[in-house]
Amino acid sequence: MKQPVIYIFLFFILSSCTEKIELDLDNTTPEIIIEGSISNYFDNHRVTITKSQDYYNFNLPEAVENAEVQIISQQDTFNLIEVGEGVYITGNIRGIPGNTYSLVVNTENHIFFAQSTMPPEPVIDSIKFEPNEDEPDVFDVLLYTQEPPEDNYYYWGLMKDRYPITTSLGKLRFANDDLINGNYLSGLIVHAIEAEPGSRVTLIMASIPGDYFNYCLSILKETKYSDSPFEPAPSNPETNIKGGAFGFFHAYSETRKTRIVRSIN
Length: 265
What we know:
With about 260 residues, the protein is mainly beta. It folds into 2 domains: about 5-120 and about 210-250, no CATH class; about 125-205 and about 255-260, Immunoglobulin-like (Sandwich). Helix content is about 5%, strand content about 50%. It is built from 1 helix and 21 strands. It has one helix spanning about 210-220, and strands at about 5-10, 10, 15, 20, 30-40, 45-50, 55, 70, 75-80, 80-85, 85-95, 100-105, 110-115, 125-130, 140-145, 155-160, 165, 175, 185-195, 200-205, 245-260. A hairpin with a 2-residue loop joins strand 12 (about 100-105) and strand 13 (about 110-115). The longest helix has 13 residues, at about 210-220. The model is unreliable at about 1-20 (pLDDT under 50).
C-alpha cells in the first residue's frame, strides 16, 4: 500500500522556511497538519493548515481554508485572518515572555487545541567573528553572554545585510544547556557564515520550549541526518496538537545582535 507523505511547513520570525517531512502512517486518509508560532517580536504571527498527501503526489499540499483560528492568552484573544493557501495571521502583535498561549483551530467539524508557554527572552552581551580555520571565506560567529541557571533550549539563526540566510530548519543551529548551564559563555561558537569584510551580520538567538526542541530534532533526524537506505522506517514527530492533527504550535522569545564583519577583530 502506498504510504502518504505529510508536508509540514515550519515558520520562523526571521523568515518563512519549509521542510519536507515524510511520516510513516498506517493509511492514506489525508491528515490535518497545523504549524504555528508566536514570539516576543512585533510581527504577523502565522498558523498554516494543510493536509497530508500520498507519497507519489508531487503537488503542493492541499490548503485548509475557511478555518476559525484563535490564539488566546491570559489577557487577549487574537482572531487570525486568512490570507490564502492555508495561511492565517494575527496582525502586528507581540507575545509576552512568561505568558501561556493557546491555539484553537475549528475546521471540518473538528476542534484542535495546543498550548505553549513563552520562555524568557535570551540576552546577548556581544558577538564576534573569527575566520574559520578550514574555509577561508567563512567566519565563525562567537557568542558572549551569561547563560541562566534554569534548563534552557535554543536555536541560532543569521541575517546578512538585513536579509535572512537561515531559511530552513536545517540551517538553524540547535542546542540545550546541559554542558553550559549557568556559565558565562565567553566566545562560544554558535554558527558560521560566508561573508566578506564589511558585511552586516545579525545573530538571532531564540529561546524555545523543550518539547519544540525535541520536535525539531526528531524532524532533523528523519531528514537532514538520515540518508542511509538501511535506516529504519521514519517515525512520526511527536505533536502537541490535541484532537488528532499533526504538527506543532510553540511560543518562543528571541533577541538579535548585529555587528560589521572586520578582517581583524
